[in-house]
């Protein structure tokens, strides 16, 4: 049976060489992974290098230019902001004055209507109207906010 064992062993060796590709596949897979890692490593190095160049350019060129432009235009922006704030306050004061004038006009019309309906002379009905007029004027005055300093310091 030893000759039969030798034949089986030889057939098994031939079968392994011809049909079993696992050793070849393992070598090819290892070579592919090694090549892939090398290429990827090179791309990573290239990406890092280009990122470093961009950051250096931003630090040396863009940052000083940005700071210079900021210092040039910030003061003019602040002046425009103060002008806009003053204009808004002026418009607000004008609106409050118009409202105060309308209230006074309505109250004086109401007071004169009450006076003419009561037959002239001062009556008890006139007193509440004048009290309401005084209260309305006082309320309008209190509603106007006092100008305040801006939190931004002047240049």
Keywords:
155 residues; mainly alpha; 0% strand; Bloc1s5; Biogenesis of lysosome-related organelles complex 1 subunit 5
Describe this structure in words.
The protein is mainly α. It has one domain. Helix content is 85%, strand content 0%. The protein contains three helices and no strands. It has helices at residues 2-19, 22-117, 126-143. Helix 2 (22-117) packs antiparallel against helix 3 (126-143). The longest helix is centred in the middle third of the chain and has 96 residues, at 22-117. The relative contact order is 0.05.
Could you give the topology of this structure?
Layout: H1 2-19, H2 22-117, H3 126-143
Helix pairs in contact: 2-3
- Considering DSSP H and I runs of 4 or more, what fraction of the residues is helical? over 70%
**Beta-strand level of the residues, as a percent range?**
under 5%
Number of domains: 1
What is the total tally of β strands? 0
What's the alpha carbon Rg, rounded to whole Å? 47 Å
Largest sheet: none
Structural class: mainly alpha
Instruction: Extract low-pLDDT stretches.
Output: 121-127, 140-144
Number of helices: 3
Please state the average pLDDT score.
77
Pfam families: Muted
GO cellular component, one term: transport vesicle
Protein name: Biogenesis of lysosome-related organelles complex 1 subunit 5
Family: Belongs to the BLOC1S5 family.
């Amino acid at each position: 049976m030893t000759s039969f064992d030798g034949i089986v062993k030889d057939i098994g060796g031939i079968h392994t060489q011809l049909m079993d590709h696992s050793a070849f596949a393992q070598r090819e897979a290892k070579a592919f992974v090694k090549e892939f890692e090398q290429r990827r490593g090179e791309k990573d190095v290239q990406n890092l290098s280009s990122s470093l160049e961009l950051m250096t350019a931003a630090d040396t060129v863009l940052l000083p230019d940005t700071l210079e432009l900021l210092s040039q235009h910030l003061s003019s922006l602040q002046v425009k902001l103060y002008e806009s704030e003053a204009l808004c306050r002026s418009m607000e004061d004008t609106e409050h004055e118009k409202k105060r004038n309308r209230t006074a006009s309505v109250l004086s019309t109401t007071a004169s209507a009450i006076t003419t309906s009561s037959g002239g002379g001062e009556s008890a009905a006139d007193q509440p109207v004048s009290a309401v007029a005084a209260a309305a004027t006082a309320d309008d005055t209190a509603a106007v906010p006092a100008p305040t300093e801006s939190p931004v310091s002047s240049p």
